[in-house]
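Quiz preparation item.
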């Protein structure tokens, strides 16, 4: 089954898969265009990227903020991935 995709405005609505990864016990996250994460740079020795979730179909033009999201999408389209520092928030 083909994964859900991200529809990107301004690029003939090109569809790409978009997956979110995390390195356990760190603040490292990554968006990737492929589900295995094999194109992601290797973190420190003994660490690995864990798939958190697949991002469902969205239109980037619907999202104005934050501008960093557009930077991430652009990097995924160009390089296949985007690495960032962040934190997990719990929603209760």
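Solution:
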């Amino acid at each position: 089954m083909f994964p859900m995709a991200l529809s990107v405005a301004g690029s003939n609505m090109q569809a790409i898969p978009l997956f979110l990864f995390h390195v356990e016990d760190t603040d490292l996250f990554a968006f990737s265009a492929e589900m295995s994460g094999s194109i992601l740079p290797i973190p420190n020795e003994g660490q690995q990227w864990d798939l958190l979730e697949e991002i469902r179909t969205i239109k980037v033009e619907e999202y104005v903020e934050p501008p960093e999201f557009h930077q991430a999408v652009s990097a995924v389209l160009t390089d296949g991935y985007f690495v960032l520092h962040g934190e997990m928030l719990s929603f209760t």
